[in-house]
Amino acid sequence: MVRDLAEDTSLFQKVLAALLTGAVAIVVANPTDLVKVRLQAEGKLPAGVPGRYSGALNAYATIAKQEGLGALWTGLGPNIARNAVINAAELASYDQVKMTILKIPGFVDNVLTQILAGLGAGFFAVCIGSPIDVVKSRMMGDSTYRSTLECFMKTWKHEGIFAFYKGFLPNFGRLGSWNVVMFLTFEQAKKFLTGAA
């Protein structure tokens, strides 16, 4: 039953499901992401300059009190785009990278192939998602932007294309390892559920 369902699901359906789940998940998680970005920005303040928040719980309360409850969803648009696109990029690229590796003589569907495919999925996710991630973080950290497009255009104009890939290596380290663990776990769960040895 599980095997039939997996085989009958097209790549388009998988990508659409990944887009939808990524979007729904971030609607719930946006306040936490906003607080994380704001607290990280406070860590960059010069010595002696007091921060706005004493910790995460205080940040939630202060943002809601001073900016309104809806402010906890600041940057939701680019955050939905980021999460949906990264989910879709991970899913589509994992399968594609894995199929490409399996065409190389000597490679079989084993842990090494799954690790390489997971790293490939992480690489593609960072390549595709970094510009959206940068815009999302800037909008969450600076409330003077009026729109996602304004933030994108100002970043492009003043800093150039490479501004959208700042932090590429640490981001790849995070998403690459995340994808390796996620897809290795997925492959093992799939074998267990389908009864494969």
From TrEMBL:
Topology class, membrane: Multi-pass membrane protein
Domain of life: Eukaryota
Entry keyword annotation includes Transmembrane: yes
Chief location of this protein within or outside the cell: membrane
Transmembrane segments: 12-29, 111-132
Start-end of each Solcar repeat: 9-100, 109-192
Keywords (A to Z) from UniProt: Membrane, Repeat, Transmembrane, Transmembrane helix, Transport
Pfam families listed in its UniProt record: Mito_carr (PF00153)
GO CC aspect terms: membrane
Cellular localisation: Membrane
Gene3D superfamilies: Mitochondrial carrier domain
Coiled coil (UniProt feature): none
Keyword Repeat recorded: yes
Similarity comment text for this entry: Belongs to the mitochondrial carrier (TC 2.A.29) family.
Name assigned to this protein: Mitochondrial uncoupling protein 2-like isoform X2
Species this protein is from: Punica granatum
Gene of this entry: LOC116199780
